[in-house]
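DM from R.C. (forwarded with permission)

"hey, sorry to bug you on a friday — could you get me a structure for this? deadline for the figure draft is monday and I only need the backbone to look sensible"
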Amino acid sequence: GPTQMLQEKLTKASEEKEGFTFTHYDSSALFKSAEEFQALVDHDVDIAFLSTSWFYDNGAKWCDMYASTYLFDSYDQVKAYFDPESETGAQFQKKIYDEFHIWPVGCFNLSVRDLWIGKDMEVNGPEDLKGLLLRVPNGASWMRLGESLGASATTLDTNEVYLGLSTGTIDAQENNMISSYSNSFQEVTKTIVKTEHQYTFNLVCVAGEVWDSLSEKQKETLTEIITDAIDKNDSEILEKESEILKECEEKYKITIQEPDLTAFREYAQEYYLNSEDAQYWDMELYRQIKEGIR
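My reply, with the result:
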């Protein structure tokens, strides 16, 4: 997946510059994924790939906004927002560093999230998903994600989703495209709706102690290595997405639909802004993102 791809790119990028060597530990080789955040805080690892939900779960309520649907309209916007050279990126880095003593260098693409439905179905807007049983990953923010699309959200372990789609105990699942494909869900999917409701990303985060110990020149070099690896990785992810869609259509005869994205965006915005959690959002920042998009 994207994470393993980025690890390879980091190794390559570091070989081209002196000063840093990366030793990678995949999946749960060192820590279970649930322990990864704390391991970075405790400096038991030097670098980890984290989603913003880890910061939310550990007290940064303002990070809830990043887990919402249709916050950004493209991955390019996500990348520009978290770019350390930009005002928003620098502001985000400082906030995370001050609250957690972690330095997020930049974000990388995990691929876009769409709806994969186990039956033939026409979907144009959120009203068409009313009553549709949609599997989402475990967690409150994921349940809200499903509801923000107009569906009835339910959780199910990843290893049960294939069976759930083939037997009809769930109607659909949403995930980033590469995960859906690598779990072979194309074999039990009849319709893919390109809701593009979230551009999933993780952040490459450096332990505060490590960052503090580096000279300005070293910080610059490490940032260059990571940024270079991310750029190469991101372009490969976009290629992979179009290959997957092509194969789903041609080999698996899946119907690919392009719904009314404006209807989905408006529905989601109303859902989130009327939710209890919106009180923790930085509305100034939210407006900045939205104005930047328009």
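R.C.: lifesaver. The chain has a mean pLDDT of 95.
me: no worries. DSSP finds twelve helices and seven strands in the chain.
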